[in-house]
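Following the same procedure, the fold was encoded as tokens, giving this record:
***
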Amino acid sequence: MGELVETFEGRYATGPDVGTSTEDMGVLGEVTKQVFCRPEHLGGSGDPAAYTAAGVRAALDAVCRLWEDHGVVRGRAVTVVGLGHVGSHLASGLARDGARLTVTDIDPGRRAFAERLGATWCEPEAALTIEADLLVPAALGGVLTADVVPALRCRAIVGPANNQLAEDGVAALLHERGIRWVPDYLASAGGVSFAVARELRGAGLDEALRQVHAIGTVTEELLLRTADRLGINPHEAALRRVRDELARAGRDDG
């Protein structure tokens, strides 16, 4: 894989994701420089899972602040679907901060972890439609389909799973139901933001963490409020922001 990445001559870089680790990135780094999150002793920024989880948590907290009641997770019903590296970090923090936590994973062995957290365990096939304030998809993507939207009983969906929408039109269906969906490419950006800040820009730890936590500001001010003001769904609002930023960058380069 490292040799394949190298053939792109810097146009593409990779990092750890489902089933791969920082140690694997160290192996890739033997044949390509276009790799993030190698172990720290090899000059990388290390495991990004905690920073990805921190970014998701910033987005979750932002959604809570937008509600008119109390803007914290304490006492809220939260369902975490998937207890991998990032999901476990998230669940631990949510439990510590007093969320009424329900969790699941396709690995039944993770039930012991749920018990240690004091969380309620549910079967994976039931997790998406449990009544909750916040639904946190933290496993694989494609779980939000046109068929499942009518059965959802949550107020908002904020999670690190990639490609959560089975198709783009599902964002509009969620919007019609009044369910806030924070685009996964925003909610899950903490690990990438941290690695890029540290490894490409040479930022210190505090500055890199500020960029991770800024995901909350983007969620609250630039997406959800923009979406509300324009009467569009957050996915469309996010894409407009990206197009605007790219156009601005093009003008600056010109």
